[in-house]
UniProtKB/TrEMBL annotation:
<keyword id="KW-0430">Lectin</keyword>
<keyword id="KW-0732">Signal</keyword>
<protein>
    <recommendedName>
        <fullName>Serine-threonine/tyrosine-protein kinase catalytic domain-containing protein</fullName>
    </recommendedName>
</protein>
<dbReference type="InterPro" id="IPR051343">
    <property type="entry name" value="G-type_lectin_kinases/EP1-like"/>
</dbReference>
<dbReference type="InterPro" id="IPR011009">
    <property type="entry name" value="Kinase-like_dom_sf"/>
</dbReference>
Length: 123
């Protein structure tokens, strides 16, 4: 999202409601204004608007609070290569703000070694 928007994730020089890029992403996607996040100073980003929005949707899929809803790396590669689209049923709450969301994040089993199929699958 930093590359697409041309800004840092945390930018204290901005207004309070747009300091955090991911919080701003939540607001823009809920209001149907994803285009507003595309870097206005990048001619390439502006010219490739549809591809940029596709990458933003992939980023949102990867930002799911519930790690079980995030894509596998093999799925990310497929989306980047083109034969697959990002998941459409995305929870657009990317920042844990309440106990329920913190509970989802706390239930992640990061101490167990991941299965090879979770790291990557066949293309």
């Amino acid at each position: 999202m930093e590359m697409v928007s041309g800004r840092k994730n945390l930018d204290t020089s901005r207004s309070e409601e747009s300091i955090h890029l991911i919080t701003l992403l939540e607001e823009k996607v809920k209001n149907g204004q994803l285009v507003d996040l595309i870097d206005k100073n990048s001619i390439d980003m502006q010219a490739q608007e549809q591809d940029v929005i596709r990458m933003m949707k992939l980023a949102m899929w990867c930002l799911q609070i519930d790690c079980k809803r995030r894509p596998k790396m093999s799925e990310v590669v497929k989306v980047l290569e083109g034969p697959m689209d990002a998941e459409r049923n995305i929870d657009h709450n990317f920042v844990a703000k309440n106990q329920v969301n913190f509970g989802i994040a706390a239930n992640a089993t990061s101490s167990a070694a991941p299965l090879a199929s979770h790291l990557s699958g066949p293309r």
